[in-house]
Amino acid sequence: MAAKDPDSGGSGEILPITPSLSETTSGVTAASQATQPPSSSSDVDTVYVPSYSRWFTWTGIDDCEVRSLPEFFNSKSTSKNPKFYMYLRNSIIKQYRDDHPRKISFTDVRRTLVSDVVSIRRVFYFLEYWGLINHSSSSSAKPLKWDEKSAGDASSEPPTTAKETAKRICNGCKSICSVACFVCDKYELTLCARCYVRGNYRVGINSTEFKRVELSEESKKVWSEKETLQLMEAVMHYGDDWKKVATHVTGRTEKDCVSQFVKLPFGEQFVKESDSEDSLEAFDQIKGSADLESGGSDKEGSSPNKRLRLTPLADASNPIMAQAAFLSALAGTKVAEAAARAAVTALSDVDYEAEKNATGDPNRQDANANSGGEITNSERDWADAKSLIQKEEQEVEGAIKEIVEVEMRKVRDRIVHFEKLDLEMERSRKQLEDMKNLLFTDQLNIFFHTRKARKSEDRVDVKT
Amino acid sequence: MKALGSSGWKGPVKFRMPTAENLVPIRLDIQSEGQRYKDAFTWNPSDPDNEVVVFAKRTVKDLKLPSAFITQIAQSIQSQLSDFRAYEGQDMYTGEKIIPIKLDLRVNHTLIKDQFLWDLNNFESDPEEFARTLCKDLGVEDPEVGPAVAFAIREQLYEIATQSVASAKESRLSKKSRRGSDHGSASKASGLSMDLVKLFSFKSSVVRKRKDLDVYEPVVDLLTSEEVDALEAREERHAR
């Protein structure tokens, strides 16, 4: 009863190997206890579980689990309960079977499960001991994150085995090999140069059985962008001093640096002398940068754009200015001036689609003569780019206008509101004044009345 | 239900993580022989001490790190555990503390930003459960996000708990003779906690203000590889 794992390269969500839940035992092959399962062509698909683990089911807990991991079943803590144990166990097994036949490591598992790591470790060891995980897997481990990083690319490279990309560690002295190492394929040993010279290896091996492996060779033949950038910076600073350049570029020897620099597309600039050629290249590059700006990705592959992406030396906030600065520095002031003039005139020409100015623009004529078809294409793209930019600018302006209008309206409303409040204040103040006046008149009246009353009283008294 | 009028003075509690499981957040950042190992996970302090070395050995073996890392990892874990245990004997005042917990973390390609209120008094709270539910509800596919969220919550709770221990010590030292209301004020010493009385008085409403709505909402972003690279480069620059 082999449980055929249909290719789990699909979603990886629900495990394809769901044994029918009505069965008491999971439908897995019962291989003999100790021997390895026969390596068949369907090895990738079938998961073998030893016969002494036949008790395993996804939904149940067996006695041996309770005995081996009592902490989950003695109800001492509220969250370490059987349900939590099943969550851990099932996730670990699921994760292993998703990646089968690769061996799953404890660290992979504990990084993906929400729990304290010691509980995970206990369940993991338990499952490994009982052969429910890592039973018959090959030993090629998953490539590690920092391995891939040290090789230069994050995720675009296909994962290689750890042996190739990991830093070489000497079997003899357990240190990292830097320059060269000696590999003995027979016994699978790697020794650093020091250990090899000292004879720091096993007795039975002959020194002739070692092969010298230059680490600079086996490091990537392709230069990453970071390294190329470092190379450019170093060359700018140190010029011909390749020793210093090599130290600036991490991980490359002098020879490598020189060869790479020569291979770079604009390395030719140092070879060619003529002004027109330089300005032509500068012109192309500025056009190319315009293409970049417009997002015309069709030209991505061409060398001018590649050059630009590799050399942001100056202030990176405006990449085009940075490239222009770098190129002008390389090419010299006269040439840069000529190139800039040429570029500006070309841009204005393309923009208004006026006739090409023959006066005072010999460079552009040269450029036209040299590569006619390419330039008209890029002119067209340049024009498209310009119009797109203008449209966007207009849109942005319109949006800003609207925003300003809304804000003004808001302010106006607030002013109106305040004016109303002000009026109210005035009115109530007037009312207050009136009431005060009334009160005052009342007081006066009372005063006069009392005086009158008193006077009449006096008169009456006098009379009587 | 407690009467709203009381400012919620509780007697001092023995220090522990204010969660159902008394788990410690452990952070590792070890550099040796040109390699850097960064990690973060939760540990149960009641586990026997030999577990530390076992874990260190297994991790080094799994990640193929040089064996010098074993002792360093073990030492780092041990020191963080003993820090935690040093706090354990002491008192802390919790009071009526509802604190905002902020999440702002990036795990591989997933970026999570969130803010929510957590009751520090509820000793049955479970950050792990919260993390699991959050990931399930938001449909997060990367399984490494859950533990990172739980860890972030735990770390913040741990920090606040240690702060309350420190403030409890201070208040005890400075006002040895007085009792009563001062303890209540000590419990509100940290500016983070919200006064429940003010929050639920008749003047303000229980419904959250509109300007706060955006802040208290979880946001999950999936980044492309280039964005991840850019962020990592920036982080490394900051670290230096």
UniProtKB/TrEMBL annotation, chain A:
<protein>
    <submittedName>
        <fullName>SWI/SNF complex subunit SWI3B-like isoform X1</fullName>
    </submittedName>
</protein>
<dbReference type="InterPro" id="IPR032451">
    <property type="entry name" value="SMARCC_C"/>
</dbReference>
<dbReference type="InterPro" id="IPR036388">
    <property type="entry name" value="WH-like_DNA-bd_sf"/>
</dbReference>
<dbReference type="InterPro" id="IPR007526">
    <property type="entry name" value="SWIRM"/>
</dbReference>
<feature type="region of interest" description="Disordered">
    <location>
        <begin position="1"/>
        <end position="45"/>
    </location>
</feature>
<feature type="compositionally biased region" description="Polar residues">
    <location>
        <begin position="19"/>
        <end position="28"/>
    </location>
</feature>
<keyword id="KW-0238">DNA-binding</keyword>
<feature type="compositionally biased region" description="Low complexity">
    <location>
        <begin position="29"/>
        <end position="42"/>
    </location>
</feature>
<dbReference type="InterPro" id="IPR017884">
    <property type="entry name" value="SANT_dom"/>
</dbReference>
<dbReference type="InterPro" id="IPR017930">
    <property type="entry name" value="Myb_dom"/>
</dbReference>
<dbReference type="Pfam" id="PF00249">
    <property type="entry name" value="Myb_DNA-binding"/>
</dbReference>
<keyword id="KW-0539">Nucleus</keyword>
<keyword id="KW-0805">Transcription regulation</keyword>
<feature type="compositionally biased region" description="Polar residues">
    <location>
        <begin position="360"/>
        <end position="376"/>
    </location>
</feature>
<feature type="region of interest" description="Disordered">
    <location>
        <begin position="137"/>
        <end position="161"/>
    </location>
</feature>
<feature type="coiled-coil region">
    <location>
        <begin position="389"/>
        <end position="438"/>
    </location>
</feature>
<dbReference type="Pfam" id="PF04433">
    <property type="entry name" value="SWIRM"/>
</dbReference>
<dbReference type="InterPro" id="IPR009057">
    <property type="entry name" value="Homeodomain-like_sf"/>
</dbReference>
<keyword id="KW-0175">Coiled coil</keyword>
<dbReference type="InterPro" id="IPR001005">
    <property type="entry name" value="SANT/Myb"/>
</dbReference>
<feature type="domain" description="SANT">
    <location>
        <begin position="218"/>
        <end position="269"/>
    </location>
</feature>
<feature type="domain" description="SWIRM">
    <location>
        <begin position="47"/>
        <end position="144"/>
    </location>
</feature>
From TrEMBL, chain B:
<comment type="similarity">
    <text>Belongs to the SNF5 family.</text>
</comment>
<keyword id="KW-0805">Transcription regulation</keyword>
<keyword id="KW-0539">Nucleus</keyword>
<protein>
    <submittedName>
        <fullName>Chromatin structure-remodeling complex protein BSH</fullName>
    </submittedName>
</protein>
<keyword id="KW-0804">Transcription</keyword>
<dbReference type="InterPro" id="IPR006939">
    <property type="entry name" value="SNF5"/>
</dbReference>
<dbReference type="Pfam" id="PF04855">
    <property type="entry name" value="SNF5"/>
</dbReference>
